[in-house]
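#lab-general

N.A. 3:47 PM
ok so I finally got the sequence cleaned up, no stray characters, all 527 residues accounted for. can someone with queue access submit it? mine expired

B.Y. 3:52 PM
send it over

N.A. 3:53 PM
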Amino acid sequence: MIYVVGSGPAGVSCAHALLCKGLEVTMLDSGLELANDRAKIVEELSKTNLDSWNPNLIKTIKGNTIANTSGSFSKGVYGSNFPQRDTDKYIPCEIKNVQPRISLAKGGLSNIWGAAVLPYTDEDIIDWPISIKELTPYYESIFSFMDLAAVSDDLKNKFPLYSKNHKTLRTSNQASDLLKDLDSNKDSLKSKGFLYGHSRLAVNPEPTNGTQGCVYCGLCHYGCPTSAIYNSSYTLEELKKNRNFRYIKDIIVQKVSESNGKVSISAITRSKDESITFTGDRVYLACGVISTTKIMLESLEAFDKELIVKDSQWFLIPLIRYKKSPGVINENLFTLSQLFIELFDPALSKNTINLQLYTYNDLFLSAIKNILGFTYPLFKLPVNELLDRLLLIMGYLHSDSSSDFTIKLQKINTTSKLLIKSKINKSVVKTINGVYKKIYSNRDLFNSFPIPGITSIPKPGYGSHSGGSFPMKTNPKEFETDILGRPTGFSKVHIVDATIFPSIPATTITLTVMANAYRIGSAYNET
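B.Y. 4:20 PM
back already:
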């Protein structure tokens, strides 16, 4: 029996590849799910036309998602915090100046992601032991079961689409107006290092198999009521239809070991905290960088060994348009990233800087209301004028230009906990300020200018683009893995999530996590 641990994007991709080879696969998963009362709300909305949605149900699923004055926000899903539930109990951590994302939910962090799927380039993974050519067939494999909303535009010259079946989403009015300005200045922008195009999103834009697809309800950041935004739990449900697949939930894997050509998986049941052991031919760990690293450190009994987790620094830069796009508050639109702008400027970074542009969503208004408080009604007209012009850039840097954080397993009597601390790169602020100045100096090409003084730079880990604690190497040493994700000393244990990425490029992480997991699963007969 082959085991895959975790139902996030890496886990379902690896399991899909193994099943395509005709192998028997059992997935072990903690598997926390949305409570029944919230699931019933989502089901009701999904079967109802947008114009008939109950406002009280919408209010309920907006709970636990709160915008703050820094531009970042606490994100719930359908008004629930289930993706982050129970992590303190099963993955106890002492965290210092880091904001790591950990999930025990079915579907992992795909429950709260932004659905952006832009591939890597060879230039950005020059330190990896594999190339984009080796990943290409697996990018294509991922799009055999994950929807892609995209446009064949100039981005494809640097970032191929890898999908023949992509569809298009309707661009918001603000994004359309900006695109017109960018197109009129295309050559000048290119000479300045800017490459732009429509966003690439794991979203189903059209009705399919009884589902509505995207209905432009503007609720993307609260949880999609029509399930148009991809969640790896959707693929899990498809895998369950395969007679060679078995899913066991409520399992918390603690460590793995090898003996006599077999792998042993030590775990506890979440329902009763009872010990349980699984024995198989091979195991693929896909639990996310924090959880997977903990499992490996426990397995190696590597207490007090400090490992470095690389992170792609996340930041926000608000923009004001010279001209407004009227009536954004009342527009039917999707609120994920509308446009991608890739910046290539060796003076700022030797790697790609990824800028994802967002147009209006009601969290903008919520943040402003939080600032103005009870005085908001006095400023309603100027606030609406501002919102008609306000855009937001969500940026990412390559890990080589970002801060890192360290992770260490500490023994405490009969238990253990992780100590996670930031490892600050002092040049981060300078680089992000450089991005701000670059945009400001070219403001007339964007017909927009960045707002001074409120650029947001949160703690490492906040953007959820982290990995590399057990990096792939051609000739791996201790606490490294080979190109099939096998840690030194193991032959039947594979790590298939971002834990094995030698560096973290700025472009979106999930697509390459999935492709690399699929690559490793597809290599089963070669090992």
